[in-house]
Structures are given as structure tokens and as C-alpha cells.
Amino acid sequence: MNVNKTLDAKGLACPMPIVKTKKAMNELASGEVLEIHATDKGAKNDLTAWAKSGGHEFLKVQEDNGIFKFWIKKG
């Protein structure tokens, strides 16, 4: 998967992963992919819902040693 930008949101609690994701998405062009690393368990539901409501494509989530990695394609 071609990632255009990576966001480190580890250690941040809700709503900060969403706030940082929104800011990072504003820097991307349509069709580009943002990879987000977060430790907040709630980020999974939050980012999925946020991507859908914002017209973005939630591509994938993966957990690795307590770190959640998300890939979202800008709509």
C-alpha cells in the first residue's frame, strides 16, 4: 500500500487522534493515503465513523503490540 503521510497519535486520548487526523487529512490530496498510529482503543470506532462521515475510505486497521495502525484514503 502506498502511504503518502504517517501520523503518530500514540499516547493521545479521545478526541485528539481525530483532531490530528483531520488536520493531517487537510494536507493530503484526494486519493492519497494517511497511515495513523494510535494507542487509544476507542480510536478504532472513532476513526471508522469519522472517515465515513467525512467521505473518506477506511482501508484497513491492524493491531501490533497495543498499537493500532489505520489506513484511510482521502475522499
The oligomeric state of the chains shown is single chain
Q: What's the architecture, going by CATH? A: 2-Layer Sandwich
Q: Give the overall shape.
A: globular
**Can you identify the CATH class?**
Alpha Beta
Q: Output the structural class.
A: alpha+beta
- Element order: H for helix, E for strand: EHEHEE
**Can you give the helix content as a percent range?**
25-40%
Family: Belongs to the sulfur carrier protein TusA family.
Domain UPF0033: 7-31
Organism: Sutcliffiella cohnii
Protein name: UPF0033 domain-containing protein
Structure in words:
It comes from Sutcliffiella cohnii. Residues 7-31 form the UPF0033 domain. InterPro entries: TusA-like, TusA-like_sf. It holds the Pfam family TusA. This is UPF0033 domain-containing protein. With 75 residues, the chain is α+β, with helices and mostly antiparallel strands. The longest helix has 11 residues, at 16-26. The protein has a single domain, classed as TusA-like domain (Translation Initiation Factor IF3). The mean pLDDT is 96. Strand 3 (57-64) and strand 4 form a beta hairpin. The protein is built from two helices and four strands. It has a four-stranded mixed sheet, with helices on one face.
Main attributes of the structure:
4 strands, globular, 75 residues, single chain, Translation Initiation Factor IF3, 2 helices, alpha+beta
Topology:
Blueprint: E1 5-9, H1 16-26, E2 33-38, H2 43-53, E3 57-64, E4 67-73
Parallel strand pairs: 1-2
Antiparallel strand pairs: 2-4, 3-4
